[in-house]
Amino acid sequence: MTATSTPRPDRSAAVKEKIRGVSQHLFARDGFDATGIRDIAAEAGVNPAIIIRHFGSKERLFVETLDAKTSWAHALEGPLDDLGKRLVRALMSGQGALHVFGATVRASGRSDVRAYLQASFAEKLVAPLAEMLDAPDAELRAHLFAAQVAGMMFALSVYDDEYLISAPAEAIVELYGDSLQRTATG
Amino acid sequence: MTATSTPRPDRSAAVKEKIRGVSQHLFARDGFDATGIRDIAAEAGVNPAIIIRHFGSKERLFVETLDAKTSWAHALEGPLDDLGKRLVRALMSGQGALHVFGATVRASGRSDVRAYLQASFAEKLVAPLAEMLDAPDAELRAHLFAAQVAGMMFALSVYDDEYLISAPAEAIVELYGDSLQRTATG
DNA sequence: GTCTATAACGTGATAGAC
DNA sequence: GTCTATCACGTTATAGAC
Fold first, then answer.
1. pTM of this prediction?
2. Is residue A99 part of a domain?
3. Which residue of A has its CA nearest to B183?
4. What is the SS3 assignment for chain A?
5. pLDDT digits (tens, 9 = 90+) for B105-156
6. Which terminus, N or C, of chain B has the lesser number of Cβ atoms within 10 Å?
7. Closest approach of chain B CAs to the CA of A91, in angstroms?
């Protein structure tokens, strides 16, 4: 053990960060399948093998990279009787989150990705939702609410419903938000 | 032009049918990614190459195989004011369709599969729905309705919401069906 | 001439040697 | 950390069987 060792500068940290950045860009732009380990490596200026070494697998890199982008926290806080429309509005405005969701779903054939999707919904949406509702069937309503939210995201970013994508956002907020509200509170 | 030509009996029809049957089974059971062309070929007792020759690609085989399983026709017909609950009920009872939907979504990284998903929703669900609603915003409501239906399917078969899967179906029909109804008819 | 089988090609992720 | 090997995949090229 060298007493004069540097204070652990973690010289691989910079490389990992670089890889993360490139992955985030490429995965979001081209999706999981179309983005190869070699593409990421080339763009980051590193060897393909070290990506696996650092992150374990392409799957885990994908999950780690795209996580922590979607936060419902902001949309959830506010008056309960406006929850439905507020959430739809947040959903329609934040394109970034939608894009990430789409990429994740399209990669959901991989088990790790699907597991992440599951955990993400449960922890980030259903759990806080169940907490803020106080009806006896709060838990059930929270799950149904999440499903309904997922439906809109699915339409917009997975099967790409052109009609909804180009429809006036306010009309969607009005109708879907209203229906969503009914799911949350009788 | 030979007047006595046979009506193209397609000598390989039996083989194609065999491949279709095996594919249907394996794709539904193990999903798109985990099912290899070689697996299908082995199970069907044919050569891997002829699968590609007959169906063009694994993707097209997948789509052709799993199509025509989901038909909303039966659930759609009936009184309009009961549409929501009727559809949820149909959805919860027919496990087959859900399974197929899940497999399709998990393969939606492939462009052909995603295109099929898009067309499938548009033609089989949205279009007939828009026809039977007669409000001025019927078109919009039909699209929102489809999105909401997709959400429930997504929860049950893609991110596998255990709570919803094991919840009493009647409770779900009641709440989600009610909300769905509101989406369809003010 | 149409259908089928053999063998290869290109590319993907990943594991192991240096 | 880097390079190279390996293995599985979908797909194609080629040639044989009916």
1. 0.93
2. yes
3. A179
4. CCCCCCCCCCHHHHHHHHHHHHHHHHHHHHHHHHCCHHHHHHHHCCCHHHHHHHHCCHHHHHHHHHCCCCCCHHHHCCCHHHHHHHHHHHHHHCHHHHHHHHHHHHCCCCHHHHHHHHHHHHHHHHHHHHHHCCCCCHHHHHHHHHHHHHHHHHHHHCCCCHHHHHCCHHHHHHHHHHHHHHHHCC
5. 999 999 999 999 999 999 999 999 999 998 999 999 999 999 999 999 999 9
6. N
7. 14
